[in-house]
Design a protein that fits this description.
There is one protein chain. The chain is α/β, with parallel strands linked by helices. The chain has three domains: about 5-65, Alpha-Beta Plaits, CATH 3.30.70.2580; about 75-155, GMP Synthetase, Chain A, domain 3; about 175-350, Vaccinia Virus protein VP39 (Rossmann fold), CATH 3.40.50. About 25% of the residues lie in helices and about 30% in strands. It has helices spanning about 10-20, 50-55, 75-80, 115-125, 185-190, 210-215, 230-240, 255-265, 280-290, 305-320; strands at about 5-10, 30-35, 35-40, 65, 100, 105, 130-140, 145-155, 160-165, 165-170, 200, 220-225, 250, 270, 295-300, 325-340, 340-350. The longest helix is centred in the C-terminal third of the chain and has 14 residues, at about 305-320.
Amino acid sequence: MPLCLRVDKRLGQLALVKLREITLLNTSFRVQRLNDHLLIPILRQPSEDEVRFLRETGVNVQLAVADMPKARAQPSLPEALGGKVPTCLQNLVPHSVDVVGDIAVVEVAPQLWDYREVLGGAILAVNPRVQTVLAKVGAVGGVYRVRDLRVIAGVDRTETVHREYGCSFNVDLSKAYFSPRLGFEHNRVASQVAGSETVIDLFTGVGPFAIHIAKRLKTGKVYAIDVNPSAIAYLKKNIAVNHVEGRVVIVEGDARRVVEERLSGVAHRVIMNLPLEAFKFLDTACLALRNEGGIVHYYAFTSEAEPLGIVRENVVKAIRDTGRSSVEVLGSRVVKATAPHEHQVALDIKVA
């Protein structure tokens, strides 16, 4: 019988992410549910350092031994394609897809476009929970942060429900931005928030940061701002689904104008998840913070060889230029690769 980790089901996704990071997850067996807990198979007894790492990231280590069913072997994407793509194009087959709820979103190289339906069918074959495959057509853009998408396999729809860390998010991917790769960030930032804080989420979308935070608040509030009416409509639904009514204040409109007219000087914490343009709103974030300061969570894209260094330098200077007396970068990390030699980075900045 395999060794496994017994964790609260609300921490299951976090535990899986962290176990993969330290190569401790045993993928030969399936995760099992036991009442309000999950049994997650692991390869071996964790070391003291691994136990410390798991506990520091919020995963309590409770070891158990259980009789667990073996995982069904799934074919790889190249295997599922079964030679239907010419050999000269096989190096362009994507190595990964983004899965939002039961929808897979994939980047299809122009040379593979004529084989998009074959590729979509293969993605369905290797992802049993996926019902729809969407191909990206162009980049995220425009005021509403959306991209063109085309159904290439499965059910003809763009709406789904995505679940992460105990939260559920309704979203139509053709009408509002959502990235499943930011699940860890949503939880990481929320875990830093005190129960009485006032938080401003400048570009909330369908509310992943706002709702994760609201679930942890006791007397505080999150002001969730977005200019996209479709995102706001889904945000309202997500607030109800996650039972955080009264802790999230919805504000539809331009973030700069909203802060200037209603929310200057009120925030303990500001979230700036608009990587393409967040730099232009640093003055707005500083205006939103209380006079004594607070924390800014800043996200950006960069193609620099040293992705964190240049971003830190530019952001610190821009905040100082607003007249703030003290700027300290508490932490920085590469969130994800977005293209060859391009990354999304995150900075946690203490401003006074």
